[in-house]
Specification:
Structural class: mainly alpha
Distance between the termini: 15 Å
Helix content: over 70%
Number of strands: 0
Radius of gyration: 16 Å
Number of domains: 1
Order of helices and strands: HHHHHHHH
Shape: globular
Length: 144
């Protein structure tokens, strides 16, 4: 149990470091290029998230569910951006994408160095990563 808490602290530390390193690049992409440190810290965070899926607790699954739903929501908003800004209710809903983008997509944005996707497509691929983490977490939770 103590190892679980230490590992959680490591994930939080790497997450914050990845957020700090990738924040500006994720917001300004493609005007700014993704650097090697951005890629490496994002890769480390991705591997830690996948590894933590094997023994993550309920709060981890809850955050991953928010990540899946939020990433899909961001992708939909970014694809239909021109239509959304004409209707004020949808404009208010589109304002929700920015905090979700910063919380869930920006820390992993360095991986886009390999993929070179548009931000909307990359957000959709991040939702697939979160969905894989959720499936692994639920599968191993049922086996335990």
């Amino acid at each position: 149990m103590k190892k679980n808490k230490v590992f959680l602290l490591v994930i939080v530390g790497v997450y914050l470091l990845a957020l700090i390193i990738n924040f500006t690049v994720a917001i300004k992409y493609p005007d700014l290029s993704i650097s090697t440190p951005s890629f490496l810290i994002s890769l480390i965070l991705l591997l830690l998230l996948l590894f933590y899926s094997f023994f993550g607790e309920r709060i981890y699954r809850f955050m991953i569910i928010i990540g899946v739903v939020g990433s899909v929501f961001i992708s939909v908003v970014q694809y239909y951006q021109d239509v959304i800004y004409d209707i004020w209710i949808l404009d208010v809903l589109s304002a929700l994408q920015y905090p979700l983008y910063v919380m869930y997509v920006a820390p992993l944005f360095g991986i886009n160095l390999l993929l070179d996707y548009t931000p909307a497509m990359y957000t959709l691929s991040v939702s697939i990563v979160f969905l894989i983490c959720l499936i692994i977490s639920v599968y191993f939770r049922k086996r335990a």
